[in-house]
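It would be a great kindness if you could assist me with a short task in structural biology. Thank you for your consideration; the sequence and its tokens are set out here.
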Amino acid sequence: FSFYTDKDLLKMIDYNLYPSFILSEDPSYKLAPTASGSLYSTEYDLYKDVIPESYEKVNEVLSKVSGYTWTDRTVPYHGVVVNTYEKDGITNKVIINYTEEAVTVENTTVEPLSATVVR
């Protein structure tokens, strides 16, 4: 998974994944003669702003279902996904809208290219 676009971050939310990074102090080309030579881009300075932004966008949604079990995934419309999570008889749903327009699902309007939790 990449993390450059809103859709990339929505995919992480959709599949219940947090972003992770392999980072180095030096540019990647200096890693070429090492066991990490296959890593394309690892220089911390290139990602120091992107890392907290990416994490925060994903965590804003997934933190609300942390500890829950992911029990179902449906696609009610093209570009819209509903993931169901359950814990101790409580059900939460994460609605992911990959489209360029607001959609209403589960009596909840979800803005374009965003995700929300319905409790």
Observations:
- DSSP finds three helices and six strands in the chain.
- The chain has a mean pLDDT of 94.
- Strands lie at 69-77, 80-87, 90-97, 103-105, 108-110, 114-118.
- The CA atoms of residues 2 and 17 lie 12 Å apart.
